[in-house]
Amino acid sequence: MQLSNKQILIIFLLGAVLTIFGAIMKIMHWPLASLVIILGMTFEAAAGVFMIYKMSKKQDKKDGFLDS
């Protein structure tokens, strides 16, 4: 599965939004706050894994990661 840089960024940003929203829920003692935080951090971790995989498979080392 080959993801573009834009898709990886969207996954990471979605995870960040979920994590922040989960933290706000946790502060306000709303139910399911821990689940939202775990879900957000899972998205962030998945985006990181995709980014590392894409950087390791890059053939041309002269171009930057964001150029591909």
From TrEMBL:
Alphabetized UniProt keyword annotations: Membrane, Transmembrane, Transmembrane helix
Domain Gliding motility protein GldL-like N-terminal: 14-60
InterPro entries: GldL-like_N
Domain of life: Bacteria
Transmembrane regions listed in the UniProt entry: 32-53
Protein name (database record): Gliding motility protein GldL-like N-terminal domain-containing protein
Originating species: Flavobacterium caeni
